[in-house]
Amino acid sequence: MKKFLVAALLAGGLNGWASVRPDTIVVVNHPQKVTIEKSLSSLSVKVEGRGSDQQYYYSERMETDSSAAFLTKEQRTDNWDFKIPFVGKKKQKMLEKNTTDVCFGGFGFGLVSAVGADDGVKVDMGASFELSMDHLLSIHYNLTHSTYVSAGFGMTWRNYRMTGRNRFIQNVDNLQVGPYPEGAQIDFSRLKVYSLTVPLMLHQYLNRDIVVSFGLVINFNTHASLKTRYVLDGEKVCEKSNNIHHNRLTLDLMAKFRFRTLGLYVKYSPTNVLNTEFGPKFRSLSTGITLFY
């Protein structure tokens, strides 16, 4: 309701208002709540809230006789007088347009899977994790009152773990996938990748609490390693390598849904985790939650 207008037009035979001006007009812009009470002898108008001022209060009561005639008019401009689920008011302002903000913090936790993988690469999503703080520093530019773009800097740690019969095997310069030695008691075989990240995102407020985001995350993969553990003939075996020929630069496509400080995200990488000239092919797919963004 953009504007509320009450006109009390009094007829000629009023007893209580004979000496008062015949017309009373009250205009309140952007009222939050308007209550009108009519009876045979009175008219009462209450306005609660005005624009962003929730403390605003206006009240007027007029005593009349039963012959008084009243006209109550509600005037709208370009706003519809109903609400669409998950969509805020058309001109509700969440952001200050054409301004820049600097933000810090945010934490994400998710589960990781391998998609488009070569035979034998069977990553256990329930045992493979992703930890991220990709907005240690983030700069926001507000395009409109409900839309903004951001560029950030952070870090991500990913773990691709296999718990089945196959393991990652380092052979000189190549990384392969193959079975454990016969009779081995299997623990796990995993690849770990540590990345510095630059997320470039577009964010849209649906209302004051809900934000959807889409964008690209650039991963500078500064470190990766292999670790396999099993027991053979009563002896614990741990195989390690820091030379697994991972791709130094990968990309993620990311979508997020956030309600206040809690969010859900999905990330898909169209680029392979490893250099396929030296190791098996697989790409990353992860999903999880975010906090305090």
Shape: elongated
How large is the count of helical segments? 0
**N/C terminus separation:** 32 Å
- Counted up, domains total 2
Q: What is the β-strand count? A: 18
Low-confidence stretches: 6-20, 75-91
Helical content class: under 10%
CATH class of the largest domain: Mainly Beta
Rg for CA atoms: 32 Å
> How do the helices and strands follow one another from N- to C-terminus?
EEEEEEEEEEEEEEEEEE
Q: Provide the CATH architecture of the largest domain.
A: Beta Barrel
Indicate the structural class: mainly beta
User: Mean of the pLDDT scores?
Assistant: 85
**Major β-sheet profile:** 8 strands, antiparallel, barrel
The CATH topology of the largest domain comes to Porin
Strand order of the largest sheet: 8-9-10-13-14-16-17-18
The proportion of residues in beta strands is over 45%
Polypeptide structure, described:
Strand 11 and strand 12 (174-179) form a beta hairpin. The chain is 0% helix and 63% strand. The model is unreliable at 6-20 and 75-91 (pLDDT under 50). The strands form 4 sheets. Strands 8-9-10-13-14-16-17-18 form an 8-stranded antiparallel β-barrel. The chain has a 3-stranded antiparallel beta sheet with strand order 2-1-6, with no helix packed on it. The protein has a 3-stranded antiparallel beta sheet with strand order 3-4-5, with no helix packed on it. It has strands at 3-9, 23-29, 31-38, 42-50, 53-63, 71-75, 100-103, 107-115, 129-142, 147-162, 166-171, 174-179, 185-205, 210-232, 235-241, 249-259, 262-272, 283-291. It is an all-beta fold and 293 residues long.
